[in-house]
Amino acid sequence: MNDDVRNIVLGLVASGISAAAGWFVRTLLWRRQLRCKQIFFGLPAGSECLLVVNQDPSTNGWGVARHDAFALLEISALIKECGAHADIVVHDAARQGIGVRTEFCVGGPVSNRRTEAHLRSLLPGVAVATGHGGPEEGALTVGGETYRVDKGTAEYVLLARLTGPGGSRPVFLASGQRSVTNQAAIRYLARHHKQLAHRYGLDGTFCLLLKVVNSDAYGPDMVELVSDVTAAATTPAPSPAR
Fold first, then answer.
1. What are the transmembrane regions (predicted)?
2. Most exposed of 32, 60, 66, 98 (fewest Cβ within 10 Å)?
3. Per residue in 191-227, is it b (16+ CB within 10 Å) or e — as a string?
């Protein structure tokens, strides 16, 4: 074998080794990222989770608002990526305790009784005006501040990862003032779960107040983080003075 042939063979061998090493490293990184994602969402491969579907309050019969349906589809994609399976349950038929299975709960307390229960039990510092009509409809109060709906211009949603006493699996809650804000919160969760896991830990608890800007023009894509309201939301609001 002359020098030219030997150099070609050695080059091919080196290229093969480099390609194999690169593939191996990429596979390890992908598996590590998937494992972190599964832990953060509480969705080990082959597990089941609860997907709680809300009711469109603007319809007389059973129905899901368009943006809420899109939010459910985005959650389903997350669940599939983790190799888990979803048990879809209507909000007023969910009878599962907190921490038994990972739960994704979409919709505010008007459209979702399960959300109402979670706010009472896990986020006692949050108040939502559930009356119909008037400027206070849907207003969200937390930490002494009230956030009112300006439809199509500025709307708010709570995005939370919560765990109950002794519970091993988290509850993910998207409680917004309109269905478009629910989808915006789920999209924010899907896009920023790595940063959230880095900041709060893979098993951390948080409650974020998000603002959806100009949804009439931009839909659920323009989202601003208003503040981390975890401390205020998880602490019972003081009783009004008599």
1. 6-25
2. 60
3. ebbeebbeebeeeeebbbbbbbeebeeeebeebeeee
